[in-house]
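Dear Dr. H.,

I hope your travels went smoothly. While you were away I took the liberty of generating a structure for the chain from your last submission, since the lab meeting agenda had it listed for discussion. I wanted you to have the full record in hand beforehand rather than looking at slides cold. The sequence, exactly as received, is reproduced here:
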Amino acid sequence: MKFFVTTDRLSAFSAPVEQTKLYRQYFIAICALYLLIAAWLAVRIKFGVMDESFHLEYSLPFAKFGLNKTTLYRHVPPTGVASHLWFALWIWLFPTIDYVGLRLITCVALAGLAIATYFHLRSLSGVWQKRIVAASVFMLVCPYFFLSVSTVMTEGPSLVFLFAGLLLLSVSKLERLYPFFLACLFLGLTTIARFYYIPLLPALFIVLAVEDWEKYRQMGANVLTTRRILLYASIAVSLLPLAGLVSLWGGFTPPLFHQWSKLRSGISFNALRPVSAFVLTGIYIAPFVWLAGFRYIKSTRPLLIGSFVIALILALFQVNLLRDPESVNDVFSGPIEHTLNWLLAKSQLALKLGFLAVYTLSFVSLSIVIRQLVELLRVEGFADKGLLFSIAFIAFFIASQAFIGGNHPFFERYLIHPWPFIGYGLVRIFPESANIKTYILLVAYTVASVLLLTKWGFS
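The corresponding predicted structure, in token form, is as follows:
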């Protein structure tokens, strides 16, 4: 749960300061609380949540026959190879382990990363520690956090790899080669643990390129040292596992998946998915934005009026930007879609009002965030490379949805992938948003996260 922040111009922020122990205590206490809840749910929730049996079934060949060309080629799931290897490793080490043990291992791994981050925070100033605590809390209250880490799903291991990579990026300061190389390897594992993370390494390339461009304007060609070239090489090397799978499968989808499923997957253009991802992002962050950014409404009035007009037009014509009517009807749709379906059963008027509320919340919150982000960048530029990394990943993530997933719709639970980066962005845009209303909202999101898991696990 760590975001890297470092440039030479920010040396004042990266130097240790006194009286920062309280932030570290908050961080470890909050992480401990949520991971204990996650572990309790891992024990209590029955097996078979969403795709658990599917992922466990296709982890077993790796545990039995090992990692080789045959097992990789005959793999069925279109994403999650590294996650299935993670489960297979523990099954191979502990043959009698059951699904509860696999769930708890993910929780323990995240706990270990939280402890490592706690000690790393000592090297950062109080300013950055405060931001990291806030961003970490935002990650933990994600409505799909417990659904991801308390189950045998590919999201759990991918979060382990992701947070390990982000922590090592912070340790590397984008300068130290060895931790940077390890960070890239973990981000590469994250990519093949969930293909939705493919934008990670390209986003990191953008960060390096922008930092080198800034230095080039000051130092000239001297910026391209052997060390910097090796940093770029680390990114390229970390993409090799993904490139190897694509070469073996002849695409982003295993050949056997097409025999198993009638759905298209892999590379297949779907223009609605980026729009769905963008709109759903606005809906899910709307409560935070309206609490923290309400004071900015007057300054963004033209944008807000335009957002409402667009929302009104879409609602009147009942334009559904959240799902392609011809796509697969998955029972695992999120609460927004379930609410709209419930309103549809009531009346056409109820559905139009539902669309109006959803689109207005989304468009208004996105308008406020984008305007404040532009203002922040106008003042600070790209000095905060953590913010640049977050922006690049979110932009690439949304754009990539047009090509990832085929005819699968963009389900609400997929927001777990950009959520930590969204959180860091909101913390930077609204730095003084901590108040009793925000804390109540965090509790509400946590309750929703538990309910979204127990909906399947206790039914």
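Two observations you may find useful: The chain has one domain: 8-457. The mean pLDDT is 87.

With kind regards,
E. W.
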